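Here's what a typical entry looks like (histidine kinase):
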Amino acid sequence: MDYRIEVDSPTGFSAQDLVTILGNLVDNAIDAAADPARPAEDRWVEAEAHTDAGWLVLQVADGGPGPSAEDRGHVFDLGFSTKPAGPAGRGIGLALVRQTALSLGGDVELTLDSGTVFTVELPLPADAVRPPRRPADNPPPTTAGGGHRDR
């Protein structure tokens, strides 16, 4: 199974919120990709996190068929699930993903491409938006005599 996580700057979000979002999306993706009825080439999961122009973008994709057209309008409803009911219940994870995203000022979207793709976009808090780090071989400029960094 493939995976990729890249966060290129501090986000300012709590670990609990990020785990709620990514944990539920990755868990669902693994369930979809692990289906033994799926062809081997469709058993994949990709997760990505990056910042883009003041937003944290979290994306989880899998090779599963995704929900039916009828079910797509309900996947974020509390208590709705396309999976069989289990002892712990079903239909909570994606509702928590949306609730958390909305509470942080963002949103979540489901698309079907070459698989099922969930994308969460969250506005970065102002204090988390920082310029990219300079490479080690390109130190910041200094002022003559004072050695202070330009800001």
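The beta strands are 45-52, 55-62, 107-112, 116-123.

More examples are in the samples folder.
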